[in-house]
């Protein structure tokens, strides 16, 4: 048995994603069984999308995209082409809705894209107050409602306001190199409080 086959056998036995697979896959901290289920769900979304490739899904499970940054860039590209804006002067802007399931959405966003699949770590999103609040006891993660991501002109957006927290979003709990973008979230507390608490949005929670 070759070294590669032995390494594969050990990985399967230990319920770990083989190194040869992770080399070509998306960042993930999942064990093998959960990883395979997650991959199947990702493929289902892509297969459904491929049936109408020119239409953005009513709600996109952004956590299921291998490269969510490209999807966010595409939102800016579509807005730039539609409104004759300069692409390099656009940024993504997030509007958090009160809808928590795809069934509550009637149709696609008219000025961006509805996304779902992110969870907040270090704090929680209060759907009634529509702002970032302190986590409840023993609550590690808080699922985010459906978010409308749209493109806006950078010079017309003030992200330094006291009531806006620029929340970093990562693909996994490892954070670091899995950074995707920053979401603008409403807050009643100073944004520095959430920065010190290490609050972030995580796309793939194990």
TrEMBL record:
Positions of the Dynein heavy chain C-terminal domain:
1-203
Q: Which InterPro entries does the protein's record reference?
A: DHC, Dynein_C, Dynein_C_barrel
Molecular function terms from GO: dynein intermediate chain binding; dynein light intermediate chain binding
One matching Pfam family is: Dynein_C
Q: Identify the domain of life.
A: Eukaryota
Question: What would be one Gene Ontology cellular-component term for the protein?
Answer: dynein complex
- UniProt GO BP: microtubule-based movement
Q: PANTHER family from the xrefs?
A: DYNEIN HEAVY CHAIN, DYNEIN HEAVY CHAIN 6, AXONEMAL-LIKE-RELATED
What is this protein identified as?
A: Dynein heavy chain C-terminal domain-containing protein
Q: Which source organism does the UniProt entry give?
A: Fibrocapsa japonica
